[in-house]
Amino acid sequence: MNELSVGNKFEGPKMKGPMLEALKDRQSMLRAKTFEAEAIMKTMPQIELKVKHHFSKGVYARELIIPAGVTLVGEIHKFENLNILSQGSMLVTTEEGVKEVSAPFTVVSPPGTKRIAHTLTDCIWTTIHGTDEKDPELIKDYFIAANEQEWLEFSNVAQLELGLH
Question: Which CATH class is domain 17-162?
Fold first, then answer.
């Protein structure tokens, strides 16, 4: 559920110097702690979450039904994606710390986001990707980085292609 993930995109006025470095350090720390928490959570009992796949022309929506009291860590998405909380309330990690969000809630997550969420009530979370593909596994392979190393390699290639390096 990368739909709720720590991002690495900076918006607004250009930050410089110590302020920018402090923000980058905080984001790096939050991301590292997210991976640490995920490693601990993987040693605990797991539950199977219900997933519904929806398709229309050029659009894929992955709807995740999450019971109350579940803590989960999202995937690392390679591209910006649209996320909709259409039912329930949850706590999520953000760049500013933990926030409570409630339906209706919509957010565009930047590429590379990875978040932790804890559901306070039963929730429905939908991630939307632009694609004509109809196979959920092929969609996942294209849009999701399997791990941090794959994300770093992908983002470096993307930046090179855009001439940002």
Answer: mainly beta
